[in-house]
Structures are given as C-alpha cells and as structure tokens.
Amino acid sequence: MVAQFITTLFTYPKAAKFIKENKLWHGFWQYRWVLFILMFLAMIVSIKILNIMYHGWHELTKPDSTSTFVHFKAAASTIYQEGYSFLFNGSLKYFIMILLEVVVFHMVRRTNELLSGVSLTFTFNEFLSAQIRMIKVTIRCFILEMIATLFLKIFFGIFGFIDYLEPIAIFVAQSYYLGMLMLDSYNESKHMSIKESFLEGKKYTGMILALGFVLNLILMVPLLGAMVGPALAAVTLTMVMFYHLDKRAIQNA
Asked: How far is CA 183 from CA 74, 83, 114, 134, in A?
C-alpha cells in the first residue's frame, strides 16, 4: 500500500511531462461539446464564487454598532466556510468529473495507445456508454463518501479529544472515493463490470489514495484545476497501472 502510494505520487510529474511530450491534447478538440462543457462549468463556478463573496461582503457591511474588526472576522469566516463547503463538502468535484468524462476517456485511451503501441479506434457509442457508467459510479462514490463522512463525524463526536484529526480523516475518505472513480474509468477501458472494478480497487488502495489526494488538491484551483486535474490524474493512473500494477497490461504489451 505504501509503495503504491509513493509510486503514484512520483508518477504525477512524469505524467505531466508525458502529456507535454506526446501532445495528448491533439485530437481532443474534435469533441466539440467540450468547449461548451468548459464554458458551462466556468459559468457555474464563477456564479458560486461571486455568491460566496457577496455573502462575505454582506457580513462586512452590516449596519450595526459592532466593530469593524468583528465584521471583518465574520466576513472572512463566511467566505472560508462557504468556500470550503463548496469545494469539499458539496458535490462539486463529482459534478466536474461527470462533465469532464470526455477528458478522462480521451486521456486514458490515448495513453494506453502510446504505451502499448496498439492503435485503437473509438466510437461515439463507446463514449456514450462510458459517460453513462461514469454517472452511475459517481452517484455510488458520492453516496459512499457521504456515509463514510457521517461515520467519521459520529466517531470524532464521541472521541472529541482527537477531533482535530476529523478534517484530515474526511479528506482521506474523499480522496479515496475520488481515486476509485478514476480507477473505474481505467477499468471500464478494460471492459470490467462496475462490481469487478470495485473489487479490483481493493488491491490498489495506496494508488487510489495518492491519485485522489493529488486530484483533490488540484481541484481546489478555480477553473484551471477542473481543466487540468482530471486529465493529469487519468494519465498518471494509466502509467502506474501499465508499468507497475496491471500485470495483464504488461503481458499484453
């Protein structure tokens, strides 16, 4: 598990270099709807951020006798809490992954092509099937994450003397299910069922955690993170599986 975690972390920079050297974005813009998806995503994120800032400004300009410092503190707290909830506690990251399935689909298959040397052709029906599956797995991961988060909150509510560890534990749980969502995209390209994919995921806990951990951090960057994160994670995942973990891929290469 530890070896998988470390290997995956060190593969992220290699994946970025791989994307640049092989110009994996070539052919990507043939999916014309991607532009509309990114524009829609940018609009949603921008509106939400403006709404958060408005609530903070409202706290800052309340017409009462409270000191300016108290108003500023309340405004900062509002922006932080709503922003944190928007990025981590809400469903934004899963919404992003559904919208950008086309990015993951393209990157996983192009990377597999280059690593294996086998040219592949993709049809719209294959993408549509992958998109429907992404929605199903996203809902599953989101529900499992919410259940895990609830149990963690109950646990740290009982053992309050270590509640400072709660945000870390929740972040780890979020990273795991985000990583599992990415792994399923790879397993889908290997024609595994969702059930088989989740069983397979138990073998790769370290890789899943590292993959989701970095992706979670990248998604914190407004807009740019949503555009870069899924693509980088998809290539990292494929490289780790091909070179280190998926023996079948190595045997078939």
From this structure: 41, 28, 19, 11
CA-to-CA distance for 78 and 200, rounded, in angstroms?
41
pLDDT digits 0-9 by tens, 70-109: 545 554 555 445 555 555 455 778 887 887 888 888 899 8
Q: How is the chain split into domains, by residue range?
A: 2-30+91-252, 42-89
**Can you read off the two tokens belonging to residue 251?**
């045997």
CA distance 106 to 1: 28
The per-type count for the chain, helices as H runs and strands as E runs, is 11, 0
CA distances from 214 to 6, 12, 166, 169, 176 (A): 12, 9, 19, 15, 11
The CA distance from 91 to 96, in Å, is 9
Average pLDDT, the chain: 79
Q: Give the helix/strand (H/E) hosting 81.
A: helix 68-84
pTM equals 0.77
**What distance in Å separates the CA atoms of residue 134 and residue 182, rounded to the nearest whole number?**
9
Q: Are 231 and 23 in contact (CB under 8 A)?
A: no
**Euclidean distance between CA atoms 187 and 205, whole angstroms:** 15
pLDDT at 65: 46
